[in-house]
Specification:
The complex is a heterodimer of chains A (164) and B (148).
Chain A: H1 6-17, E1 23-27, E2 34-40, E3 51-57, E4 68-71, H2 101-113, H3 123-131, H4 133-147
Antiparallel strand pairs in A: 1-2, 2-3, 3-4
Helix pairs in contact in A: 3-4
Chain B: E1 61-63, E2 69-71, H1 72-79, H2 108-126, H3 137-147
Antiparallel strand pairs in B: 1-2
The chains are: A alpha+beta (164), B mainly alpha (148).
Chain lengths: 164, 148
């Protein structure tokens, strides 16, 4: 493997030392360009109380090209399709090398708070969303409870860390 | 008492001459140390881009008219991607070199060409032919040529 650019090392260090609230990103030990990410559903959104797992990969061309990010947790959202692919401008045409892992993840968190059915990736979801928003939000909440809920908290006397 | 100087060692230091009033981004960005860093590779202005070993004239700095400064190699590589659309990575204004800055002088001609090409790509992507995509082979070759 070629050496990791300083910028990626710096970004990783800061993600660990000064994490964004509600977001965690940890690189794989055997591939420092591959991150396990989890994002907490924003409060007062249909995804509240959910913890969504994602994978993030920094291509060789990064930061000239955007990171590749995908949801691993199933989610009902008009801009995220069933393969977990995300429709977000900064991940495609509006990428800039001044952006970084943390800003991209913040944008994804914001996308959860503000679904945009007028620029859909999952057409069926977007149609549902436009036809009956309340029902779509109810379904998104249901999916959140079903697929994105935290494992039960450890007993108060036990160790505070999960073994995940 | 008599002093005899047996040996003299000269030490010099240098830095890129970026006008002070242009350093407004210091403390504005959310990360970084005290030093000014390139907005693309986040290494110091006076250091090198990720592909160079020796700082200085081999890895120069340029000053944008929007007051954003980059290693020439970094911004050049960015402007050669189709995603850049000729825009500054920091503020998304059309990128151009600031006039009247001494360290920009050697790069003016080359940048005219790159920016012209980037603007053409912008027209292409706006007309919807190919908005996404990365650095193509030809761009990489031009980049190599530029580094020489």
């Amino acid at each position: 493997m070629t050496t990791l650019p300083k910028r990626i090392i710096k970004e990783t260090e800061r993600l660990v030392s000064d994490p964004v609230p509600g977001i965690s990103a940890e690189p794989h030990e055997d591939n420092l360009r591959y991150f396990d990410v989890s994002i907490e559903g924003p409060q007062q959104s249909a995804y509240e109380n959910g913890v969504f797992r994602l994978e993030l990969f920094l291509p060789d061309e990064y930061p000239m090209e955007p990171p590749k990010v995908r949801f691993l947790t199933k989610i009902y959202h008009p801009n995220i399709d069933r393969l977990g692919r995300i429709c977000l401008d900064v991940l495609k045409t509006n990428w800039s090398p001044a952006l970084q892992i943390r800003t991209v993840l913040l944008s994804i968190q914001a996308l959860l708070a503000t679904p945009n059915p007028n620029d859909p990736l999952a057409n069926d979801v977007a149609e549902d969303w436009i036809a009956d928003e309340d029902a779509a939000i109810a379904k998104a909440k249901h999916w959140t409870a079903l697929y994105a809920c935290r494992p039960p908290p450890p007993s108060p006397t036990g160790p505070s860390e999960t073994n995940n | 008492m008599q002093l005899q100087i047996k040996n003299v060692q000269c030490v010099a230091s240098w830095y890129w001459d970026v006008p002070k009033e242009l350093k407004r981004d210091l403390h504005e960005g959310e990360d970084e140390d005290d030093e000014d860093v390139c907005g693309i590779c986040r290494a110091s202005y006076n250091g090198t881009c990720p592909n160079c070993k020796l700082p200085g004239e081999t890895c120069p700095l340029i000053v944008g008219s929007c007051h954003h400064n980059f290693h020439v190699h970094c911004i050049y590589q960015w402007l050669n991607t189709s995603t850049s659309k000729g825009l500054c990575p920091m503020c998304r204004q059309a990128f151009s070199l600031r006039d009247g800055i001494r360290i920009n002088e050697p790069h003016k001609e080359k940048f005219e060409k790159v920016l012209m090409k980037a603007r053409q790509q912008n027209v292409v992507s706006v007309s919807g032919v190919n908005a996404a995509g990365g650095v193509d082979q030809e761009d990489v070759m031009i980049d190599q040529e530029f580094i020489r």
